[in-house]
Amino acid sequence: MAAKNAGNLEGCNVSMIVQQWQSAYDRGQLKNALYQYWAQQVPKIFFTSAEVAISTQRTPDAVQAEEKLSRDVLFEPLEWFLCGGNPSAVFQQLQALNNPPQLCGKVFKVGEPTYSCRDCCADPTCVFCIECFNKSTHKSHRYRMSTSGGGGYCDCGDVEAWKQDPWCDIHKQGLGQQSQNPVEKLPKDVAARAWEVLKIALGYAVDMLLWEQMDGLPQELEPSVHQNTYVTMLFNDEIHTYEQVISALTKAISCQQKEAVEFATVVDREGRSSVRYGNRKSCDQARSVIQVISALTKAISCQQKEAVEFATVVDREGRSSVRYGNRKSCDQARSVIQRSTSLRSKPLKVEVMHTSVCAHQAFAQKVLNWLGQVVNHSDGLRHILCSTALQQPPTGDPCVVERLMLADTALWKTARVQCHQIMMGSLLMDQESKKQFSVLYTRNYAQVQKDFMADDHDHGVSIISLSVQIFTVPTLARYLIMDHDLLAIVIRTFLEQCASCRHGRYLLDREKLQKNFRRLQFPLLDLKYVLSMVPDEWNDQLKKKFLNGFKIMVELLTSMQGMDTVTRQVGQHIEMEPEWESAFNLQIKLAPAVAMMAGWCATDKMVLIDAFRTAVKALLEIRGTPDTVKMCKRRVCDHEAIVVDYTVSREPVSIHLPICRLLAGLYLQLGRHGLTFNSPELYGPLQPPSAMDLLEKPLRTLVMIAQVHAEMWKRNGYSLFHQVYYYHNVRCRAEMQDKDIIMLQVACAQMDPNQFLIALLNKFELMNWIEGDFDDFIRLFFYGRRRDVTEKGSSATDVSAESTRDLLRFTNSLVEEFLNLLIIIMGERYVPGVGQVCSEDMVKREVIHQLCISPMAHSDLSKALPENNNYETGLEGVVHTVASFKKPGVTGMGRYELKAEFYKDYNPFFYHYTRADQSKSEEAQLKRKKQEGESTACPPPEMPALSKEFSSLVNVLECDVFVHTIRTVFRRVNSSRSRSWTEAMVHRALHLVGMALNEEKRLYQTSPYIRFNFVKKATEGGSSSLYAALHDLLGKPRIQNHADLLTWVIDRFDEVKALKEQKPGASDAQKAKKVSSKSKTDAERKKKAEAARKRREKILAQMSDMQKSFIRDNLELFEATGTDLSSSPSMEVEGSPLVVSSQHPVAVGPDRSPATHVTLTTSTCILCQEDQEVSAGNKCVVLAAYVQRSTALSKSRGKGLEDPDKYDPLLVSPDLYHGVHTSTCGHVMHADCWQRFYEAIVAKEQRRTMRFRHILSYEVDRGEFLCPLCETLSNTVIPILPPSTTIQPDTVSADISLSFSDWLDGLQKTVEASQQAVMKEEEDKMESSDDLPVLSPCPLPSITKNMAEMAAQGFQQLFEYMTETGAQAQYSDSVKEMMKLFSRATYTNMLHDPPLPTKFGLGLDPNDDDDRVPMTAWGTCAYTIRTLEWLLRDEGKPLFGSLSSRQADCITALVRVVTVSGNLSDPQTISKSALRLLSALLPQEPMKNIPCILDLDMFFTLVFLHVTIPSLYCNENTAAGGTIRGVALNDKHLLHLVTAAHLVQILLAANFSSADAPMDTEETAEGSAWVKLFMAVRKEAGVQTAVVPSGWQLQTYIRESVLPFLRCTALFFHCHTGVQSPAELQESGVSEFEPLVSTWSSPRLDHHFKWCRYPGVKESLASGPASLVKYPVEVNKLVPLPQDYSDVINRGSVFTCPRSDGDDSRAPTMCLVCGQMLCSQSYCCQTDLDGEPVGACTAHIYTCGAGVGIFLRVRECQILLLTGKTKGCFYPSPYLDDYGEHDQGLRRGNPLYLCQERYKKLQKMWLAHSIPEEVVHFMEANASFATIEWQHL
Ligand SMILES: [Zn+2]
Ligand SMILES: [Zn+2]
Ligand SMILES: [Zn+2]
Ligand SMILES: [Zn+2]
Ligand SMILES: [Zn+2]
Ligand SMILES: [Zn+2]
Ligand SMILES: [Zn+2]
Questions:
Q1: What spans are recorded as compositionally biased (Basic and acidic residues) (predicted)?
Q2: What is the pLDDT of residue 1620?
Q3: 1776 CA distance to ligand 2 centroid (A)?
Q4: Ligand with an atom nearest the CA of residue 1749
Q5: Do the beta carbons of residue 1547 and residue 1602 sit within 8 Å?
């Protein structure tokens, strides 16, 4: 195809260019042609002006134009040339030549979900992308879910990554394809051009990116025309914080804060940003100013501020660590500050660059991208690119890839990332290239790591992050080890980075380790990758290279051996805590590699022998020479041993013994290859180490730790304490404590048991103790000192007495520790190699012991177990055999409980127990045994047999020194004068005897010929025998706690004795006898326990009978009070207003039932504890309350108050888009007590703010306080009033006869008259104002004069305003003041955000003039009732009886405040309000600002009219506070009217579709009546009715739609009148319609159709059904969430930051109210709120949730609750794994599924408006969270 089809572009004719290139190509001068072209074009396209060069000035148009130009001018011709035709067609052809892919290789974006199969992965870095995973078999395996940190790709199809099923269904298709060289498949000409083009393009891109000359280009790229423009380029570093960069920029280039933020964001994201564009001088200037300022601010102003910051951190962490015991000394803190500040005083990196350099670099980056795209089309092209990239130029220079590798740290962030991406997309996707690449990488490994060390960028943007892609491929790793000595390179690289070599020995550089370990550690991680797969086959080369690596590893370990030695401090506390963390960091990172190396050794005998020899050699070298190691003789009961003379309590000891531990690991492997400890081939020319050589160092460490436990090292401070903690901790113990024990076992197995024990006793410094006269020695010591003291009469008395006591105490503790260690050495056989066990047995035993402490959640269990290299603990494999799983409820976690049959395996001296674990487990077991009536003894469990090498271990348990030691302990207990024994000692001694007996029994039963004679030795010597001593213990009160164990031991003793005395065959009878006697005692115990249980049951039954008969006898009483015995007490507490009645009550109208109960009659003030009667005239009592603006009920989410000043709280829109919710904790106070309390808080706050600013959980200046009793957040109080009906009895309603139509007629006339008056006025003025029309009511007589006489009389009576007996007088001032205060609080919260500071006391509030103040209080009453109705509806609960007492108290108090408010306010205001409501409800003429009925919420309207209508006809002469008369009759007619209006509303809004048409149902009379009305109403309104519903359908619709209104109304009037609720409404599941309707006679709809004709109605209807509120109004819910959490992650990963084009969001966060995804916690999406920058979430809650929000943080899998600008908390997500646990931060990675119940709980929290309360409770309980800057989320 000819190039001419490409068409012409402005100034660039593609076909012409392509032709020129073609001819140049033919001449072999393509490179020149391309460079010439680029030299001309590139500077014309990029960095041509500030508008495209400076990130903050770039416009989307400019970006697009630049993009288009580069596409058209630069890439288009290149593609045409490359393809020799239309690129899209050719690329498609090439694509068809590809083999179907066998590898997925999808490169992960940040936050994308990844899946690893725990059953099949080769190592935990192997992952699937979501598409592959969903199409693979691993979905049904145990898998782990995670989110990618960016980089890395899908391993689908990599046979080495998966033990089985490496292909998903998609990539399986690529199988079996002939793998021919893909280049051969390409068309010849394309291939030929591709070789050239790709090489030139790649070379160009790399040359330009690495170009170092800032003001000039390579010769061949110099343009003909020179421009003189420069930019100032700011580079990223990881030292300066965002804030520092921003502040430097604002000062240096005088830009706005916002612009500076944008620069900083770009610099952070891309690694550099140009900040100034212009001539050389201005750019130079900008550079130096930025540098100076950034250095200065750090050096001067920041230092102090930072030091303060640092000091607080240290202080805070010092305090929090006290629990673990770490308090850093001041010196250290100071030095840390100094170090860190000096580090930060480096200036920012800024360069001035010529724009043409920038332009070419910009183009170079684009070229890289383009290359990535091109090779994606075709395997052949990829192969070509790889080959050129790896081809070494003839000059001998390094190839392109190597250049990039070595220049990695010189590049800026995006350039690096692009380079890595193209490497991953090309080199790593092609098997052969990957191999070559990895060779290059290995060759440059040391240099690359060194560069990284010196660099300051994160690991993720460094080339070394590619290690994982290479080293985790086992074949590749093995090849690199064999042919390129990878193992040695990696270890040596690490060693040389952190150690210096002196005299052939390496010395670790502590300072480097301490400061830079984070960057240093990566070779160790690589080592783990390299070693992760043990080779199946060895060859000589592999053996050689592995052993070479092993040698270097031993060098490294030798340099660690004996690190951080400690010497016991006596007398004085250490001055400075030594640094210990770096050695442990190193240990933790190194341990897996060491363990894996031992694993490799284990697979080949020769390798093992060689490695063993290397380790032994190292051990002998560090052992010390005979002249440095002193030996001495020690004797115990006729046995003599030569031991090392080294006193742990006086000489230095180290906890780090990696060489000994390495050797211990190798010893375990010997048995596998038929080797024993003494096999001569192990040692070759070396002298085998003596058992003492093996024993000495680990024993010192263990003794030191025993002495720490004995509190002998207290003066050595917390650092030692920490080291001991970690030594034992699950993360370290496998390669520390466990190995030391193994080494002791190894030594023991090779030694004479008596000598072994003497060596132990000697090292424990117990040689005195073991002597028979130890007590005399102590006495002598004690009295001797006393005598000294009395002679000298000095003040040293205390000291010497103290030290004697210490000596005794220390010795006793050490004996306990010694016995403990002996139990461990003898009993810990669950290590494969030591005992005859497998690794499952080992895990099982761990699990059993964890569960003996208490039942545990899966995650807690996992945490307690050590992980292997694949992060597996083996837990799942065994847990079900030993434990049963209990599912969780709505809170908490699922738990495992140990199965009963495994309790016998419990060993209280289990060596992985901490001391706390030990006592907790003992307690738990004791409790359990007591409950089950068992013996309380926890005897030593049966032990597995030892392996052959270790079999002589048991001899210790029958040797003379052992028997002597135990006997010594028992004798001292028996001697009344002895002080040298403890209960713990006896416990351990008994346990050891039990172990010996168990062992004897086991050995005798398995092989009776084995000589093991503990029983014989223990009975030797008659009355002085151990056996006799044991018997003497019986019945001793001093050992009462262990009496059961003693009994067990003696029983077992007799059993074994009998067993051995008899012939093997005859022992059965004996056994049977024993068993029967044993079971007899057991049976007795059981019988007792049974009897006790029966007794308890009997008593309970008696009590229950008594209760029942009491109820029977007093049945009437129970019925009379209406107490429902079955319901939960909290709902039915006495005083709850919503209580049952059996007769049918009427709550509205003159015929209403009498109020049966008056609640809240007296209350106790929680502040002064006095009782107070509730009445209108007395001292006012109040409820602590919290009012908050709310959008929870909004049906128009996102709609906000446009202009608070114009907001009309009276005419409420039915979408309820804005309201105020009130809640209370229900605690009652005197108004004045509360005021004093509040004033005290304010005063305290004022004092506090002067000292230091720290965010309190509540904001005093917004009127907030915590309830003094329950600390619930509150911001106002509600006065408690008696029902208004009891204060102002309705005197007239019953006597008046006024029909509904007459009443309505009168009101209509009133509205008409006032509207006409207003319109006339407006006509007179000839102008219309924007203000609300002021309707004034006309006088009552002017209405009645036009009415019939009877009606007029009734009307007159009903509305006549009585002034003589003023209600005002009945209310005390304090009540009135509190009412005002409450109204004010609702007003400020509704209209001001943040709410204005509220003033308390008598001072006038500026807002008091606003007529809307009382109305907002009425509104909150209606809003709160609406909310409660929703809550009840949502949970399917009955209307009455299911509100909590808090909720019931709240609405009762609110309703009473509201109903009284009508006649305490200015009557004229009230009257005008009434008229305005009526003019909306009964429209006569269309009026401005008066909505039609479709835009009114009828429940609000009803409440407002109830309050206002009695005052309708007052005039200027009526004073405030008149008696209201016919309230009841007004209510009755009002209810009719409003309900009728509501029905019309519902009928008009109806929108049936034919899809909802029901099945045939019988038509009812009611149904057909509704249909008739429906048609009539709609016809009147002129609405098209597409589908006519059936009668039944319509009836259902209407009933459902009107029900919420009726329910709210019922609640309102019930609280208002105190009339009981109908019984039917207290049960759920009952049809509610009839009982509700029957509380008043059914509505009459014969009223009028005027509503429908009102123009406003027609307008609203014309805009379609979507604009109307849908009936029935549904309860708002939080957005539905997907069942599987990976769907959520996926949704988060495709979400990009809305502010920057296409960038990933770092913290995608979903609003659960509206479902919107936000880019949280990031500068890019900060906005201004009241002049302060806030994060996306905080900004969102002000548009979506009135300042309250509930979010799901996708990456963290946690709920975020926010309220206001400064408060928030985290909450567990409703997603749970199979073990019933949530996973905050996705740390465990188990699959997570939505738990509906928990989501429902969140939903309820949100709807009940309790988020602010929850947040404050949380913040009060977790002070540490107060430091989180919630506003930035
Ligand atoms: Zn994939
Ligand atoms: Zn796949
Ligand atoms: Zn699998
Ligand atoms: Zn009080
Ligand atoms: Zn309270
Ligand atoms: Zn963003
Ligand atoms: Zn939202």
A1: 1079-1092
A2: 66
A3: 28
A4: 7
A5: no
